[in-house]
Amino acid sequence: TPQSTTTATARADRVQKILQLKYQLSDRLQTPALGQDHRDDCWEQCEYLVYDGFVRDIPPHSLVRLPVYLQAILKRLDKTELDPKQANRALPLIRELWQQYLELEDGEQGTPEQLQQLRWMIEEFRISCFAQPMKTRGPVSENKIRKLIDTIRSG
């Protein structure tokens, strides 16, 4: 049907854009001007966003946001190279929240839906911490993320 062809074409275009952004990021992350801790964090973020099977695994409503997350990493790199102070302040918090997510996922705590919600909330929070003035999908904060983590742990 024409609509499914249009949907498939839009999806293919999106995937192409995602792969182009990932290629740009791979190139940018070679820059020694960026601190190793930021490079490592960005690499890990990229690896969790774009990997073999990501198109199959990531829910469509999140896949639509992938180009935004990758563009936010590029913006983060630009801003961090110019003035690392804000990024240096935010990095330990992001790392802590991300580690908690990974521990919950590894321990298979919470429902798959809760883990997905937490995972994408952290991506949105990265935008608010590192890539202003880019907009998040909705309101997101450290407190909301911590509340969800507590809900998953006590569940």
What is the radius of gyration computed over CA atoms, rounded to a whole number of angstroms? 16 Å
Say how many strands there are.
0
Helix content: over 70%
* Beta content: under 5%
The largest sheet, given as strand count, sense and whether it forms a barrel, is: none
Structural class: mainly alpha
Please give a handful of descriptors for the protein shown:
single chain, 155 residues, mainly alpha
Notes on the structure:
It is built from eight helices and no strands. It has helices at 2-28, 36-49, 54-57, 60-63, 66-82, 85-106, 112-130, 142-154. The longest helix is centred in the N-terminal third of the chain and has 27 residues, at 2-28. The N and C termini lie far apart (44 Å). The model has no long low-confidence stretch (mean pLDDT 92).
Short recap of the structure:
The protein is mainly alpha-helical and 155 residues long.
Strands, helices and their partners?
Elements: H1 2-28, H2 36-49, H3 54-57, H4 60-63, H5 66-82, H6 85-106, H7 112-130, H8 142-154
Helix pairs in contact: 1-5, 2-5, 5-7, 6-7, 6-8, 7-8
